[in-house]
Known about the structure:
The protein has helices at about 1-15, 65-70; strands at about 40-45, 50-60, 60-65, 85-90, 95-105, 120-125. A six-stranded antiparallel barrel has the order 1-2-3-6-5-4. The chain is α+β, with helices and mostly antiparallel strands.
Amino acid sequence: xxxxxxxxxALSLTACVPMGPEIGASEDAIVDGTxxxxxxxxxxxxxxDGAACTGSFxxxxxxxxxxxxxxxxxxxxxxxxxxxxYVGSSTRSLTAEYRVSEVRPVPNAGLSGREPNDVALLVxxxxxxxxxx
Length: 133
């Protein structure tokens, strides 16, 4: 009976120990950080279904992005009309918006993870003012 009582006391004391911080929680703040200045050739790619990616102007009318960013929900490619290209240092200070007229995958691009090219091109409806890479 004494051994059962000892186990009960030991378990009770263990339950009284305060919990540590949650896994993944961070308590450190960024101190004296600096704002990354925007590079106009790097763009914010927004899909009207809520997905977001980045891309880069490689010519005044072409943005290079990842194939998985242009993949449709049920296979194939998302329609060009679903995309908007934005330029700016943050989503609060966008300086330009462009529409997409065409989505072009590159050969051997895909989503299985075995393809060497997770790359796609977006052709803009009009030429961008920003200087490409």
